[in-house]
Amino acid sequence: MLLSLIHRSYRTYKIYLLAAVLTLPSASAETPLTLTRHDGPAPTFKEPAPGTVEIHGPMSVLATPAAPPGPADQVLELEYFCAGGVPTFAVLPGPPFEAKTARYLPALGHSETWSRYAARIAPPGKPLPAGWTQLRLDLPLPADRVLQVRNLKLRPERPGEFEAATAAPRASASKEALEAYFSRKFPAAITKVSIGKDLVHLEGRAPGDPAGLFLADIPMDLLLDDPAGWQTLVEVKPAADGSFSLDVPRHRPRGNLDHDRLLSRWQLVRKTAQGIEPLSRARYAGAVDCRSPDLPPARPANKKGLGGWHSGKLPGELADLGISAVTVNVMIHTLVALKPGPGTTPFQWQGRTYHARESALAGYDRTFLEAQKHGAMVSAILLVANPAKSAEQVVKLLGHPDARPEGTFAMPNVTSPEGISLYGAILNLMAERWSRPDGKYGRVHHWIMHNEVDAGWVWTNAGDKPDVVYMDLYHRSMRLMDLIARQYDRSSRPFITLTHHWAEGGNPKWYGSKRMIELLVRQARTEGDFPWALAYHPYPQNLFNPRTWEDGQATFSFDTKKITPKNLEVLDAYMKQPALLFRGQVRPVHLSENGFNSKDYSARELADQAAGMALAWKKMAKLSSIESWQYHNWIDNRHEGGLKIGLRKFPDDPGDPLGKKPIWHLYRALGTPEEDSAAAPYLQVIGITSWDQVIHTAPIR
Most distant CA pair in the chain: distance in Å? Predict the structure, then answer.
């Protein structure tokens, strides 16, 4: 996803030869490197931001240590941003630089944000030849690819750094156990779980022997087949036909704490002298008692939104553009402290006491109140800081313990009582505060659960997990938000957030959007469906190229490699399949992060940018599942890998700071009587005479 200050790039990516000087402050046991061009055709040297260099196309560059490296300095580390990545490349010590001394380092994978890279420049016990003073990096970049690099250094290898990572034993279920559970045929079923104000109502059927039947109350943090899930049992006495119906108290003790069974899943088991045997799949609550059942749902006036929006900058922009929906990034760890302090207010959740940070909450209040004033639908993007990159106590407890430092953000810790309690406390604090009937603090209508989970290694990291294991964690996070939020707003939905990489992952460590939806559907159907929705990011195939109508990987098939503005009809058709419906209704689709690049500010490039938006809008008008398009990024940002994706120019543009691009004027006109006249000039840019020529009407399978 393109966050306010973090962006990514995509596939046919243009690259600039980068050479500039990159020098780092010295750090313990690290040797900073300066990067300069070695040879080759005359490049365009750029330093797009302080401390960053940018390379366009194939290039040899020299990395010069700031001081003589020590004998243990055998690891090259850097941060990079490169849509499409860099193939395996050679490193040569010198001078002289001789092919016989070349060492080959692993590829830099496709990256859509700043990503960390570390590799040995020599295998253990075989250091580089003595006497070298520089390293030559031969980067075999395609001519149209851009690489940005920063924080280049040599350092010693850390213990276990290049060993295969293994998951903490209790931090996730195993792939084998999950697959066996989903494929198993159970003789009994729990058919209904409803959460009332004080009671939980359960119904089901248990054919066969009625002896020894119990309902197991399994807290959400417990993993599949954990015997602790069968410690709290409620006896079941079925009728002659095997059906049963009973009520139990909503709250029960859990140790010395209070457990709200809103957050339990229930499983029918048989208790015998030999132990416990599961007879049904687990099931979460479907219906939830709501504090404000008449709270009106969001009713956007059009499909036009802004992504990553916040109040305080260009305050008239929502009205000027006619915006009816916004997304807002929320760093949830900033909202709560574990101990009291200045500006905190204590509150309780599940018998534990936490402390709300009032100034952080008030900052979001201002944004949500401003959106409320304009009648905009608000979707909060919930981002979890990565505990592998922070020593902060809240972050360490909140983030998944298997998260690796390669991740920008992390999956929440949903498999420990302490972690899920903190996470649930924050979700409840937000939902209760921003779903009030009086709108005192503003309103959040929907919750986008983290960022681009098909690219979870980068954006929602939980370590290196098989897809089914990763989805089990993510499903818990979505389900927790769903159950908590519907206590306050019955129209609220958690959204799964996905990239444009559809049937293929786009990176060896990514899963693919289609696969994530398939796994979510399976898990939700197995354990009781819930009203999740889809937040999709159909950027053009090449994020640098706004001419999305040329996207070769976007086809009109359910097996298309990518879904971009060119083939939005595929997403609409896919979500309308019977297996994807919720209670017979199509799940809402929000295109919650999308934009078109202008390679520069020339008239031709700005026309291409606007033409991409015109095409996307005309397609969306025909697609009933798509409720909203949040344009991102609103303003060009120098921290987005060389992209100029905004509706406005850079704030520090020397000739026209914050200048409105043609796409700004087009976007303002969309959804108004001026739409057709504003969009008409872009028919010629695309090479068509009518918008009907880009609308796909044939069946999609």
Answer: 89
d(CA 30, CA 66): 10
Count of C-beta atoms within a 10 Å radius of residue 132:
18
Q: Hey, what amino acid is at 581?
A: L
pTM: 0.89
Average pLDDT over every residue of 308-318: 90
Name the band, by pLDDT with cuts 50, 70 and 90, for residue 84: confident
What's the rounded Cα separation, in Å, for the pair 283 and 41? 64
Q: Which domains does the chain have, with CATH numbers?
A: 31-155 (2.60.120.430), 182-287 (2.60.40), 303-694 (3.20.20.80)
Contact between 258 and 214 (Cβ < 8 Å): no
What is residue 271's three-state secondary structure? Answer: strand
336, 429 Cβ separation under 8 angstroms? yes
Tell me the DSSP string of 197-247. Answer: SSEEEEEEE--S--TTEEEEEEETTSPTT-GGGGSSEEE----TTSEEEEE
3-state SS, residue 683 = helix
Count of beta carbons in the 10 Å neighbourhood of residue 653:
14
Mean pLDDT of the chain: 91
Q: How many CB atoms lie within 10 A of CB 522?
A: 15
- Which residues lie across from 307 on neighbouring strands? none
Alpha helices for 486-633 (secondary structure H): 513-526, 568-575, 603-620
696/620 Cα distance (integer angstroms): 12
pLDDT tens per residue across span 555-609: 999 999 999 999 999 999 999 999 999 999 999 999 999 999 999 999 999 999 9
Is the model's pLDDT at 122 over the cut of 50?
yes
Given a contact cutoff of 8 angstroms between Cβ atoms, the answer to whether 235 and 216 are in contact is no
Distance (Å, rounded) from C-alpha 592 to C-alpha 1? Answer: 9
547 close to 608: Cβ distance less than 8 angstroms: yes
Report residue 362 as tokens: 């008030």
